[in-house]
Amino acid sequence: MRGATGTDPELAAPWETNQQQTRSAHGMLAGLLAGRDALRPGLDADQARDIAFVLMNVETYPQYADACGWTPDQWTERTAAIVTGALLRTELLVDGDRDG
Fold this sequence. Notes:
By secondary structure, the protein is mainly α.
């Protein structure tokens, strides 16, 4: 669908709406995390929203699945680890998800 948005206005509008709604949902999540002081130091809610939006975007999955050969279970597990590692304060991560 994404590839056709530049040439088909009937597809472009719903695609843009979906992307805005998805970014808004990630914004609500980031706001909740910020309100609980759970975000990594130096990371604000807008930055957290953008990171979550890009990492968990519908366009990211095919890259991992098709180009990298990840299974759906691998994608779920690894993406959760990547996103929590990128967003959450280190002390909130379980031992297996800590940096370094």
